[in-house]
From TrEMBL:
InterPro entries: Ald_DH/histidinol_DH, Ald_DH_C, Ald_DH_N, Aldehyde_DH_dom, ALDH_GabD1-like, GABD/Sad-like. Coiled coil: none annotated. The keyword Ribonucleoprotein does not apply. It comes from Sphingomonas donggukensis. Belongs to the aldehyde dehydrogenase family. Keywords: NADP, Oxidoreductase. The lineage of its organism: Bacteria, Pseudomonadati, Pseudomonadota, Alphaproteobacteria, Sphingomonadales. It comes from the Bacteria. Pfam families: Aldedh. SUPFAM superfamilies: ALDH-like (SSF53720). The keyword Transport does not apply. This is NAD-dependent succinate-semialdehyde dehydrogenase. Residues 2-450 form the Aldehyde dehydrogenase domain.
Length: 452
């Protein structure tokens, strides 16, 4: 039985029964049959459905947002913004999908070849709790536009969100089998990947989950996209607007209570501006308003669960054991639920094990570096390579960071964020493949050469 527990109160707000083996089989069979019909649907039918789903998300914005707040603790303001981003994602593919799937003619020595994008089949998505709607839309919208169908295995924490998504898609008129929610435990995923009716799998989650899914997909010789962890650097150079960088840094570390793969986690600051940045950043982190996530003006609610909060607290103890110094915060708040205070760690040994971990909570590591070479070296000295943010007005420095930081994304003088139009994904142990834009649309498609 899945339990939805409000992390702001610790109270169980709902229970959800997992599907039986017969129910799982019925849904997979429905996806298989639904794909047989949907694969030949006209682009106009696909874009119309995406538009209706986007409209339905907008019409149900309050219900969706409130469910996310209750199940995983994000603030109401951020939950509303997440739903609005979902609407933009549906509308992006509805507007641009047909053009992105247009044929390309190639002239060869023997004649003409048409490169054509065709669907592949049912795609299984294993999605996390931290952005319970946007993560799903990033796979669902391009899957529908491609002519594929989707099966969602959502996190155990957010089964209410998953059921609500399925209801809204059905109400928007999606044909049978085009999108379905699978309320199943993680140990059922391997069997689904092995099922011949499922052609591909996409996962957003931890390294451990990614390795298991990739192993199962490899055994079945199936395409897989993985968006895993990150320990994103936030680099500040002497030419930067330090006041602005410090202000953005607070949001970049505490948004979603620090529970985002692309949250800035390691703040790498040039020695010339280190002390100024640290003072401003510390003031901002200590000023973060922690309160009921449903209340206006709250900056940060609880973490997603007591277990997640306790994991972050234990990571701080590990850092201190290696010689790091906690300037302030990082404490569990003595009240029901999964509350803690934001904190800042300094003097973290760069060569230690802790410096190479991902902290999935509102704790920042601040490092001092003497020059750009050291900044780039430290930024890359982790097993991850998802995102990065660099702050400099020097064009040459911007180009070096863009070229040399080992990451799938780099934001210049801005906080990193995902948008429907741009590719999203990482390198190294942050995964492989891309979501969003034309790249996400094409990941699970057959690029077929038609030679005449």
């Amino acid at each position: 039985m899945f339990k939805s527990i409000n992390p702001a109160t610790g109270e169980t707000i709902a229970t959800h029964a997992p599907l039986s083996a017969a129910e799982i089989e019925a849904k997979v069979a429905a996806a298989h049959a639904g794909y047989a019909r949907w694969r030949t649907s006209a682009y106009a039918e696909r874009t119309a459905l995406l538009s209706r789903i986007g409209d339905a998300f907008e019409a149900n914005k309050s219900a969706l947002a409130e469910m996310a707040v209750r199940e995983m603790g994000k603030t109401l303001k951020s939950a509303v913004a997440e739903v609005e981003k979902c609407v933009s994602g549906f509308r992006y593919y509805a507007e641009h999908g047909p053009a992105l799937l247009s044929d390309t003619e190639v002239q060869t020595a023997s004649g003409s070849t048409t490169a054509r994008w065709l669907p592949m089949g049912p795609v299984l998505a294993v999605m996390p709790w931290n952005f319970p709607y946007w993560q799903v839309v990033r796979f669902m919208a391009p899957a529908i536009m491609a002519g594929n169908v989707g099966l969602l295995k959502h996190a155990s924490l957010t089964q209410g969100c998953a059921a609500l998504i399925e209801d809204i898609v059905r109400q928007a008129g999606a044909p049978d089998g085009v999108f379905q929610n699978l309320a199943i435990p993680s140990d059922a995923v391997g069997g689904l990947i092995a099922d011949d009716r499922i052609v591909a799998v996409t996962l957003t989650g931890s390294e451990g989950a990614g390795m298991k899914v990739a192993e199962a997909a490899g055994r079945a010789l199936k395409k897989v996209v993985l968006e895993l962890g990150g320990s994103d650097p936030f680099i500040v150079m002497p030419s930067a607007d330090v006041a602005k960088a410090a202000k953005v840094a607070v949001t970049a570390r505490t948004q979603n209570a620090g529970q985002s793969c692309i949250c800035a986690k390691r703040f790498i600051v040039h020695a010339d501006v280190h002390d100024d940045f640290l003072a401003r950043f510390s003031d901002g982190m200590q000023a973060v308003k922690i309160d009921d996530p449903m209340t206006d003006g709250t900056d940060m609610g609880p973490l997603s669960s007591v277990e997640q909060r306790d994991t972050v607290v234990s990571q701080i103890a590990e850092a201190e054991g290696e010689g790091a110094r906690l300037l302030f915060g990082g404490e569990a708040i003595d009240r029901a639920g999964a509350w803690m205070t934001p904190g800042v760690l300094v003097d973290v040994p760069p060569e230690g094990a802790f410096a190479k971990q991902e902290i999935f909570g509102p704790i920042a590591m601040v490092f001092r570096v003497p020059d750009i070479d050291a900044a780039i070296a430290l930024a890359n000295d982790v097993p991850f390579g998802l995102g990065s943010s660099v702050w400099t007005t020097e064009a040459a420095e911007q180009e070096r960071f863009a070229r040399e930081i080992e990451a799938g994304m780099t934001a210049v003088n801005a906080m990193l964020a995902s948008v429907p139009e741009a590719p999203f994904g990482g390198v190294k142990r942050s995964g492989h493949g891309r979501e969003l834009g034309p790249w996400g649309l094409h990941e699970f498609m057959n690029l077929k050469a038609v030679m005449r």
